[in-house]
């Protein structure tokens, strides 16, 4: 069982996860348009992953007898037109999502809802990974600067990402 309050906030989180997916898809298209095909692939995989996050929450609400309410969101706005700026915006967004997950965890803790705490733990760990991935890429991009060879290499490496980083959906 989940409380009405936690149910509402989880519904809000579904919206944020779908928004994340949209944002990363827009970033993917932007990266492809500036010829970073590998980075565009990486971002598209990230967009897929965010969709899986949203569905995970949908399933959890259903499983716990709550009510799923799918709502809309604003258009994603890509501010940068270069690869470093795009990944920096991605990191900023992930920090926002981490705050949201921490907020949800706080709520579940207040309510002593141990099942929800257990469910949300997966997202806590996922956010550590998301921020760390983005930070690693940003650090490399800063080192590379405008070096053509370096940019070519990192784009190739990012393009190797094909799997959604989810080990279990249960
Ligand atoms: Fe997510
Ligand atoms: Fe991930």
Features:
elongated, 5 helices, single chain, Ferritin, 170 residues, mainly alpha, binds fe (ii) ion
TL;DR?
With 170 residues, the chain is mainly alpha-helical. It has five helices and no strands. One fe (ii) ion (FE2) is lined by residues 17, 20, 50, 53, 97.
Characterize the structure shown:
By secondary structure, this protein is mainly α. It has one domain (4-159): Ferritin (Up-down Bundle), CATH 1.20.1260.10. It is 75% helix and 0% strand. It contains five helices and no strands. The chain has helices at 4-33, 37-63, 83-110, 114-144, 148-159. α2 (37-63) packs parallel to α5. It is elongated, with a radius of gyration of 17 Å. Mean pLDDT is 95; it is low at 166-170. Bound molecules: fe (ii) ion (2 copies).
* Helix-strand pattern: HHHHH
Q: What structural class results from the helix and strand content?
A: mainly alpha
User: What is the CATH superfamily classification?
Assistant: Ferritin, core subunit, four-helix bundle
What CATH architecture would you give?
Up-down Bundle
User: What is the molecular shape?
Assistant: elongated
What's the helix count?
5
Low-confidence runs (pLDDT<50, min 5 residues)? Answer: 166-170
Mind telling me the C-alpha Rg?
17 Å
Fold blueprint:
Layout: H1 4-33, H2 37-63, H3 83-110, H4 114-144, H5 148-159
The chain binds fe (ii) ion (2 copies).
The site of one fe (ii) ion (FE2) has 5 residues, from α1 and α2.
